[in-house]
Amino acid sequence: MNAHIRTAPARTQIPGPAAPRRRPRLEPLASSAVRLGPASLLGGWQELNATATIPHCVDNVDRTGVIANFRRLTEEAPRQDFRGFWFADSDLYKTLEAIGWEMGRSGTDRWVPMLSELADLLEQVQKADGYLNTYVQGKPDEEPFSHPEFTHEFYCAGHLMQAAVALHRGAGDERFLAIARRVADLIVSSFGDDGRPIIDGHPEVETALIELYRETGEESYLRAAELQVERRGHGSLPAGRFGSQYYQDHLPVREATEAIGHSVRQLYLAAGVTDLYLENGDQTLLRAMEQLWDSAFGTKMYLTGGHGSRHRDEAYGDPYELPPDRAYAETCASIAALQWCWRMLLATGQARYAEEMERALLNAIAASIAHNGTAFFYSNPLQLRTGHDGSSEDAPSERLPWYDCACCPPNLARLYASLHGYAATSDATGLQLHLVAAGTFTAENLTAVVETGYPWDGDVMVTVRGRGELAVRVPAWATGASADVTAAKLLAEPIPGEYLRVSCDDGATVRLRLPMTPRLVRADDRVDAVRGCVAIERGPIVYCVEQADLPEGILVEQLRLEPSATIVEEPGQDGVRLRLPALVSPLDTGLYQPYAPTSSTGTSVTVTAVPYQAWANRGPGAMRVWLPLA
Amino acid sequence: MNAHIRTAPARTQIPGPAAPRRRPRLEPLASSAVRLGPASLLGGWQELNATATIPHCVDNVDRTGVIANFRRLTEEAPRQDFRGFWFADSDLYKTLEAIGWEMGRSGTDRWVPMLSELADLLEQVQKADGYLNTYVQGKPDEEPFSHPEFTHEFYCAGHLMQAAVALHRGAGDERFLAIARRVADLIVSSFGDDGRPIIDGHPEVETALIELYRETGEESYLRAAELQVERRGHGSLPAGRFGSQYYQDHLPVREATEAIGHSVRQLYLAAGVTDLYLENGDQTLLRAMEQLWDSAFGTKMYLTGGHGSRHRDEAYGDPYELPPDRAYAETCASIAALQWCWRMLLATGQARYAEEMERALLNAIAASIAHNGTAFFYSNPLQLRTGHDGSSEDAPSERLPWYDCACCPPNLARLYASLHGYAATSDATGLQLHLVAAGTFTAENLTAVVETGYPWDGDVMVTVRGRGELAVRVPAWATGASADVTAAKLLAEPIPGEYLRVSCDDGATVRLRLPMTPRLVRADDRVDAVRGCVAIERGPIVYCVEQADLPEGILVEQLRLEPSATIVEEPGQDGVRLRLPALVSPLDTGLYQPYAPTSSTGTSVTVTAVPYQAWANRGPGAMRVWLPLA
């Protein structure tokens, strides 16, 4: 019972968060084969995560009663009430997953005693048949899996499995893996081919069961995941207040090709279905996922990589319904979107999936965490108005240290701890770099050392050791990208939205220059909510204007941009800030008035735009990503 | 116990829905002193209400178990579960209120037997102490008034009181009045000056208690209402998921001058506070209401007179947060807004309050009911997109015959049945007409016979019998209005947003000509959601464009208006339709793309605009009130 967790990784090759058994189009580089430079933006986040975010999560799952929810079940008669939401177990599991990846990344042993204690605790709480869920176990009248639309039992089990896989990969742990396997075995025996054909209201277990299969080789886990996928969409769950689509139970997955319903559930399901394709090669699944992806990323995604327009049911809206002020854009949805895109990238090798990973990572996800690593947005709007009522947790004006529904903070922790596992792949020809970042990337035959100040600087210098093909993704916005190579042969020019491909000899250098000129972006005309507006981007970074940078007496709502305005770059704080002139439009009087042609007038002011990822680090205040044209 | 309800009005003067005891700035004309022409739009609605909507409500409160909720409590041990929402009693009470007003209006006796049966039933269910609430009475473990933030007990009691007042005024009934008084007496004794200082989570009882005071002269009801108003806003209710503002408990009423929280609760409270001012003359209440009104109507109201931008908590948004697609704009909120405006009009005599009554009545409220009178919108958006997911009751693509939460249909029924009570007032000088409609309006010294096809036609002919001053409201949009009078002296010219005032001799005629040229309207620049768009109005009527009127292959999202386009009027179906040319813009490709200056191109098409009040009577489909400019 009290065996200690090992402190060293079990193996030198630590697979990343998704490690297909069946060879995909692109194979993920082992996370141990990637080292992100600590001075790089992404590497810096990993350090901050290790030193601030993960400890903060550990403290808060304890403080908010998540661990007490387990502990009370070890007593004869639980004296304490269950605390938090019914899926609070998953807050602990996501934190454990973060710790697993972080131990693999840095070799830290600071959490080893805690892990041993927690393994003891979970072993005590887990029932003889493998069942483990502190919400249901604390309700004597509740049969396990009797309300799968509500209780999140599979969901919590899935997060336990993912934690166990991460702790096994990153820390060589066997105890959590054994606990998770007992849970998975119960799911197999209860809900397998001959079991009750139920599904969970919140998809998550699909991708988790498949990763557990990948880690253990146990085929029944893959089959259990397949059954979860195939049983979904037949209306087996009661529809509830928000309809079947809320549970992703409205249509079978091959027909459910419009992104709809609760966005996190939609995106976790899509990740699971794509994992299933990666293992079983069923092309009908891939085709459905491609259509679904076009719907989500082509008609329902925010410029920042946020997903989900509606607060009411945390759901996707209609196509092009993308209000910046009421963007729900849950942090977890962008994380789930990144996880899904990664799997689509492995399946197809297409740059667009990596493009969207980068968009989400550098904008919606990056914005959701404060500079100190210990305060978070749950919802990531693209606009706060003057006079915003930020008193609700649902749409606060500032990042909060924690949430009653605390899904997002530990989700960020597990993503950042495993981030190096999402950067690069290999195939028979060589190495592919998808997320451009300073660091070292090692495939079988070649290692790429990347030096760059990206995403603030567009100069990307790659030095290659060994031989083989190197592919570097050229972002779709990078019109005018150029490349110089030495000791190497250019196979494909740097075309935006494709890959620069180079055949390298040992010692080759590849220098990619991405033009970082700030640019104005507009949305499809059908995005009514930002008609007549532009956003400012520089490289992959979306910018915003904050009230904090405006002179007294000028409201952010008064600014009008001249599209021909010269934008000046100011490197320094928050990467690169931008300065540009804007007209200050007088405030209207009267909510509705007769239309009359007008031309913009008003005084001029120089405006500072900051990366959206940096907003709201100077107190609450109005903010806009989309700015009206003069 | 079994006395029959009387079939004839108790008195020839039937007070309207709000009949102040203390003389207000303007006194409402008794509803018996107003007869709306049956061929007029408003009078036609009243006929449809009597023949279709009220019978439909009667059927549905029965069918959905509302009456069964009462009946089960007359059995020894209730065998049936409570059905519907916990405030379902109010569905019956609002239907009864409609019947009361309708009996007063038309003298119908069709519901007399039903009323007698229902009076029997309510007398049986009412407890000895006066308590009457079928949700709480059916829960043996629930103490009355133990969860006032949730149970709506005061709210249901308020609707019972309003029903009783209407039945007393309109039908001479004494039995419902006695039942309602016993409920009110219980509130006085339990929550009076020496009672428990609680308030209800849903304001409503304030205005109801005051009307019951007005009808009975019982001063303790006024005091009970005053206590409800004064106790509100001290955070006495648990804040809950949506915060204290959801319950209107965030600030005392004199400080709560921003419209915020659940919009129906906000507006019912405001009506109650204004009623309190009308009786106690406390100027600090009126000042707070004026500020609150400016916030609601000046920064948070839809062009259609809808209120409430957010689906999540049915709440007002931030100032200028007015998305047309996700407008919640609950039917009940517009009804409540009209009721509040009426009381503000009585208090101040200012035309702007009548202006907003008309806006709501002819647009948001009128649109919420189908041409057949038996299908309803709960939410009244100003835009449905192509591809709208209309599967949710919350944002359906078509009117539904009934709702699980059925507050709106019987609220429409009670409004329409009492509509003639909101049209005109009198003061020492004479008669004021606020809602222009064909009909007969009788004040003490003069009667005005109005002949007009308004709101479709701008020619308003008034013939006066008797002598005195006649005031006719000139809408704020009616630039160029003119008047001719005979046997009368013009005291004030017809200035838009004010009153035409005429001193009349017997036989005088006043002819007001309101220019009905269609016009384009824009919103304050801060209403981001409709930037670059205009709406079409003609007189007080807001128009929209429906997919149903467009040629195959052209989507409503492709239309661009030329602001100088000639708009042609087509009288006929739905009052007056409009025809105008529009550009058909090609659909964009790509959700986000580099900004480049463009000019509108595309083919031209002639577009039909129909009154918003008539939309969605030809099957589901896309619709827009706000149309982008070319």
TrEMBL record, chains A, B:
GO biological process terms held by the UniProt record: carbohydrate metabolic process
InterPro entries (UniProt xref): 6-hairpin_glycosidase_sf (IPR008928), Beta-AFase-like (IPR049174), Beta-AFase-like_GH127_C (IPR049049), Beta-AFase-like_GH127_cat (IPR012878), Beta-AFase-like_GH127_middle (IPR049046)
Domain spans labelled Non-reducing end beta-L-arabinofuranosidase-like GH127 catalytic: 34-419
Boundaries of every Non-reducing end beta-L-arabinofuranosidase-like GH127 C-terminal domain copy: 518-628
Signal sequence region: none
A Pfam entry, by short name: Glyco_hydro127M
Limits of the Non-reducing end beta-L-arabinofuranosidase-like GH127 middle domain: 441-516
Chain residue ranges for the region called Disordered: 1-23
Protein name: Glycoside hydrolase family 127 protein
